[in-house]
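Practice problem: predict the structure.
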Amino acid sequence: MGLIGLIPVALAASGSGKPSRDSSIDWRGELLFDGRPIPGTILYGRMYVIPGNTAVNISPGTKLLFEEGYGLAVLGDFQARGSAEEPIVASSIEKNTQWVGLLLLGGRNYTLRYMVIEAFQEVGLLVYWSYATLEHIRLRSASAPIGLWFRWSSGSLTDIVADLRMNGALRLYMSPKVELLAAGIGIYAEECSNLFVSNSRLLCRGLPGSSVIGVYSANSTDIQLSRCSIQVSGRARNYRILPESPSLKQFPQSIPDVKLRELTVPCGGEAIALAFCHLSSEIRIDSCSLIAESVGTSDLGIGGLACATFLAGGCQNISITNTSCVARGMQGASAYGMWLSANISEIGSEHVEILSSTGCRGVCAGLWISDGVERTRFINAVIRSEAGSGSIDHPDGGSAVGAVLQHATDIVFQNTVISAYGGQGLEASQQRPRAGSGGNAIAAALEDSSISTTNVTFAAYGGDGGDATAPDTVPGLGGKAHVFLLVNSRISGQYALIEQDGNPGNPPPQQSKQKQSSPL
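Answer:
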């Protein structure tokens, strides 16, 4: 049963067998949730439920240990106040087993301090139609799809430290062009308001084939992140599809062995540190570090996408200040430092560093703006895209674009540097006599867009060609550099241009001529 399916189960349980009068219960020591009675709860299937007329207070050092498949739903009052020396622990009874998670459903003000929530199967903590104050919370899981889930709720989160290994189980339609089929989320805010996260660290790593998002907000308002570090990583996975075996009658008797070709399809691996979608508004991001890393399936450029910040789907009034956005794509994965898409407006970025890097394949763009973005400004920003060097599978250096704008209007850059660096070609060898060429670089590519600039530098540096290191080998060509690629677009204001093609590779070393002695 999915997590949302457990909510009506908990609500139904609260109306059956509950105490006839209000009660207050203190939990301390070690409590085993394995089917035995627990004071202040009703057991409904494998879900322990605290009824609406019951208050539970948990003492410091208390351990809540769950048998596999059991969970705890709270409809009454629930206060868990541990201490730094004696945190409260919610975990499984046995190693390598998982419990469902903790659900706060009562529409109350809940407080959890100094609590460790680990080994959960569905979600560490779900806050549903309630307000929660979370302080000094530690989350650890080996395969859960969600760490913290706020739904129709508000709250204050301080010093949240999450180390999550995530098994993607959510299908997310994030924009008309972006849909994740199997995603895991560190902190999920769905139709929330007044949610504040500060001084927190999230490390979310997707299992192969899963997509992962550090913080995801959908249709929420008044969300603030301050002094947070979010790092996510994903790895694409190859799925092998074997076609149906044809009838052996189609082949003559002289062909005893028929080998069918397998089709290999890369899937998953997307890593997004921060995403706001579906009409989210009044968002404030300040003094945060956002890092996304994705590993594709090969250097041929298939599978995987790393994106530090993704804003889409009608979002507006978003402020990002004093923040670094870093995206790294490896083994063919693409990388976007910041991606703005699908009819968003009123986006302000100030003192922001946007960096992207890839291997020799995969799209490498520092900033990507597309599909109806307007009234967006970047002040005192550094936007840099750096493609990787060539590899054995693909000897040419990667190509890079500093900023891409498609169907975007009223975009403002002030005191900003936008640069792109093509990758270096692979040097030649006796096995590969032709060295790789340097990658091309474009500082800004615009299509049906308009931008205005004040004190902006656009710089493009082509990658150097690979050297010819052995006799009878050929050096690689230098990559081309283009400051602008404009299609029905306009750039106005004050800006400086730097355009530098890559150097060709060095020629092979000259063979030493042996001196011939004259006959006596």
